[in-house]
Design goal:
Elements lengths: L2 H5 L15 H12 L7 H13 L6 H7 L1 H4 L7 H12 L7 H13 L6 H11 L25 E5 L13 E7 L4 E6 L4 E6 L6 E5 L13 E7 L4 E6 L4 E6 L6 E6 L3 E6 L5 E5 L4 E5 L7 E5 L13 E6 L5 E5 L4 E5 L7 E5 L13 E6 L5 E5 L4 E5 L7 E5 L13 E6 L5 E5 L4 E5 L5
Antiparallel strand pairs: 1-24, 2-3, 3-4, 4-5, 6-7, 7-8, 8-9, 10-11, 11-12, 12-13, 14-15, 15-16, 16-17, 18-19, 19-20, 20-21, 22-23, 23-24
């Protein structure tokens, strides 16, 4: 269906029939079924995969991949990332150019068009960006250690089952809260689009992609995250299935512009200098990009897959604080790590006691947010709960959810993205319920 579905080991929906296959075996079958011998382009290949998955009684590939999760990291089988190297060779064309070359072309293209040069745009992004993709700045939030939230969430996007209409979402992932424009942006992964959802609206509006999955510049393939460049009125998107980061104008933009190619991007955020941070789950690292850099700089991980303090295991969501410390949901290690500027290894700030459901454990953590006190909020995906880890604590505390997997207002079915608005209200992407839930501060 989309490349993201094939490679992300943390996105696996629990099977209804408990018919798990070993990951390497399943992926081999998927490759044989989906990659023809003449190695057609990814868009063509995924079309075949989609026809195969929709034409039967089986769930789409993104749903199928969720079933593999339990065996993808915790077993002795070959990790999914290694099997995806073969898929990468099949789907990545040889005409990709290094970032420096791409950036130069973008500068030339933007100078001769109505767009401003990239360097100028990025400088404006620096000036505009004082927050991350997690929403309001942690230093300005009206929350503290005593803050509580209402236990029943309100569905503010989706919630009508999976589908492709404008009142539907289909396996959503990342979220960005735009307080200035009173809306949220959702990476609607399996609909291959970014959707803008105004506060209190009944339906969303497609603002990027939505033209089927593919690798044209007017298409997306399994987008997993999105942030907003307010100054230039544009979106920056993790287009994971196409292995690229793209920028897409909000001013009636009909196509995107690749700013970083050849990257297995899962999540991205921006610091208060406008530097871009991207998690690469296949390389088990997080890189920071400054203007003019070709390859970026490793700021977390980068020492191979593992569970040592200088390693990551398929990192997912990111948060960068005002000191430029990077918080990483180290999904495969069931922990959240903090990497301070220039550090050679990270510090465990949540989890790290193997997978489990006790208050000292996490199960495939996803979205992460840190308040100005240094308390960590984690979307504890497979425990179906949102948990707060007070700075320095050895265990967390459930703040919403934790009532088992389900679709009730006080339940989740696999959490993904996490954000917060300027009033301290929480926004949680409830992936397998195909909705976004808002939890208001409880003032009682």
């Amino acid at each position: 269906m989309n490349r993201f579905s094939d490679i992300d080991p943390s996105r696996k929906r629990l099977p209804d029939n408990n018919d798990d296959k070993p990951l390497t075996s399943t992926m081999s079958e998927m490759r044989r079924a989906s990659i023809p011998s003449n190695r057609e382009p990814l868009a063509s290949t995924t079309n075949e995969m989609r026809r195969a998955s929709i034409g039967s009684n089986k769930e789409p590939l993104a749903s199928t991949i969720n079933e593999m999760r339990r065996v993808s990291i915790g077993s002795n089988k070959e990790p999914l990332a290694s099997s995806m190297n073969e898929m990468r060779r099949a789907s990545t064309t040889s005409n990709k150019e290094p970032l420096a070359s791409t950036m130069n072309e973008m500068r030339r293209a933007s100078t001769t068009s109505n767009q401003e040069p990239l360097a100028s745009s990025m400088n404006e992004m620096r000036r505009a960006s004082t927050t991350s993709n997690q929403g309001a700045s942690g230093s300005s939030l009206p929350i503290n250690i005593k803050t509580k939230w209402k236990q029943h969430g309100t569905t503010i996007a989706g919630g009508n089952g999976q589908g492709k209409q404008l009142n539907h979402l289909f396996s959503p992932y990342g979220i960005y809260v735009d307080d200035d424009n009173q809306c949220i942006y959702i990476a609607d992964c399996d609909n291959h689009r970014i959707v803008e959802w105004k506060y209190n609206a009944e339906i969303g509006q497609v603002v990027a992609g939505g033209n089927g999955f593919g690798n044209r510049m007017d298409q997306l393939n399994g987008p997993t995250d999105v942030i907003v460049d307010q100054q230039n009125d544009s979106l920056i998107i993790c287009d994971l299935g196409n292995r690229r980061v793209v920028r897409w104008s909000r001013r009636n933009g009909t196509k995107g512009q690749t700013i970083i190619p050849d990257i297995d991007c899962y999540s991205l955020t921006m610091d208060n200098n406008g530097d871009l941070y991207i998690s690469n789950f296949e390389q088990h690292e997080v890189r920071r990009w400054k203007i003019g850099e070709t390859n970026g700089t490793i700021v977390a991980g980068g020492n191979g897959k593992g569970n040592r303090l200088n390693q990551l295991n398929q990192p997912t969501s990111l948060f960068v604080d005002q000191d430029h410390s990077v918080y990483v949901s180290d999904c495969g290690n069931h922990r959240v790590m903090k990497w301070m500027t220039g550090a050679k290894e990270g510090i465990v700030v949540a989890g790290g006691q193997d997978e489990g459901n006790s208050l000292t454990q996490l199960s495939y953590p996803e979205g992460v947010f840190v308040d100005h006190w240094g308390h960590v909020y984690v979307a504890d995906s497979y425990n179906h709960r949102l948990i707060r880890w007070v700075k320095g604590s050895k265990e967390g505390r459930v703040i919403v959810g934790g009532n088992g997997k389900g679709e009730q207002p006080n339940q989740f079915n696999l959490l993904r993205g996490l954000s917060i608005d300027c009033q301290g209200n929480l926004y949680v992407v409830d992936n397998s319920n195909h909705r976004v839930q808002k939890f208001e501060i409880d003032l009682n």
